[in-house]
Amino acid sequence: MGLFDTIRTVLGTTAEADATRDADPEDLFGMSTAYVTMEADLGFRSVDAAALCFSGVDSTDFSDVVDDVEAILRAGEEETGTAFELHEDSHGWEWVILRDDDPEDLVTSVHFAADEFIERGYGSRLLAAVFGFERAGGGRGTGGSDDRTDGDADRAYWIYSFRRGAYYPFAPKPGKARNQQLEFKLESVLDGELGLEDDESYWYPMWSDRDGGHPWE
Amino acid sequence: MDWKPDWGLRGRMVLTMFLLFALYLVFVGALIQTDSFFFLPVMGLFVLAQFFFSDKLALYSMGAKEVSENEYPELHAMVSRLSQQADLPKPTVAVADSGVPNAFAAGRSQKNSTVCVTTELLRTLDRDELEGVLAHELAHVKNRDVMVMTIASFLSTVAFMIVRMGFWFGGGRNRQGGGGFLVAIVASLVVWIVSYFLIRALSRYREFAADRGGALITGRPSALASALMKIDGRMDNVPKKDLREQSEMNAFFIVPLKSDAIGRLFSTHPATEKRVDRLRELERELESQ
Description:
The structure holds two protein chains of two kinds.
Chain A: H1 3-11, H2 14-19, H3 31-42, E1 45-54, H4 60-80, E2 83-88, E3 94-99, H5 103-119, E4 126-135, E5 154-161, E6 166-170, E7 172-173, E8 177-178, H6 180-190
Helix pairs in contact in A: 4-5
Chain B: H1 7-33, H2 39-52, H3 54-62, E1 64-66, H4 73-86, E2 92-96, E3 103-106, E4 114-118, H5 119-124, H6 127-142, H7 145-169, H8 178-218, H9 221-234, H10 240-246, H11 272-287
Parallel strand pairs in B: 2-4
Antiparallel strand pairs in B: 1-2, 3-4
Helix pairs in contact in B: 1-7, 1-8, 2-7, 4-6, 6-8, 6-9, 7-8, 8-9, 8-11, 9-11
């Protein structure tokens, strides 16, 4: 514990400080090349969608910001063809869902939306950017064939935490289980290319509302 | 997000801690003077053990058990995302079968924590309110309140033990050198009484701090305010059996169980109306851009 940490602990302001700490979007662009690596080395293709997850604030000002984000994305839609929708999931968290078959455009759109939140002083409400991947029926001779569900595609996500400025892998299996072997593999292959979260206790699961769905569904 | 730090609260917190510290210095001096210093390491081991098992003890005394993601998917998802916003590893989630609508957080560090809610709380609150309560508990974890309160009350516990022993051994067992021990007992009694009130005050300030932290985690101060009012209103109908069983857990709870004639000085939590007022102020700050 450093000096500042100690002072915050004494004053009881750690929760305040960390809950309102600004977002760290630095490493977001690393995803562009990661899409290439995922396909070339692991056989994982983009699911042609990505999403930005944020938690709302009870203020009129914040609703205005969300409206402006929408306006920016609508302008982007004409430019790059990236479709978008806003969606609130069953837990009360909000999503900007983006659809485009060009991963480059997905990353750019996520960045645009995130930037708007940050510029307007709501960076601390950004939780995560989620990029989805899948590969048909267990991939190519990776030795992990015993723990896959037959006939089902393997799903994997790279989740960028704005709170910690780092990526972590998330590979959900049916029934709220995680494919840890696959997560480990993704971590080893992409280490160095993406800024990774090395403390696994921060690898939060982001389950979908429906079994087998994407986190943002 | 526009909000102002609460300097009044911080000032009070520092003052209380300073007074405690000064009191303890005098106390340690008295112990050294009377050759009773050997108590400290012995008691230190006890308190350390208690600190390490504090979460287990709290859960055990509430009859709470850890629940899996499949049993309570909603609750887990909520805790997980609030932890994300608070920048905290996800704590263990536990549920206690109880007729008291309440929640508490336990654990010695940010990496080792448990958040527990009662079945009655889940029945009583709607989603936003539950979020507000969980965020308040996570703020306790984030602020390391278990550790802070353990350290703050350590010497108070020692003083209490010395007073108790004084009653057992009746002070003047042997006439030679017994006088020193008598002084130590009287000093301990004074230290224990004064520190008791200071620790209670500190505990109330930590509650305010956790209210603020929780409100900023959810971004909805009103959610916690309405949960507090609801729980407070429901407390009057709590079955007597639960009152008896759980009153020793009061310091942990989000809203303490009511008991008769508890003065403001004796309570671990601020009055609910006061907490709601503060949250309203915070709500106004977030709204006024």
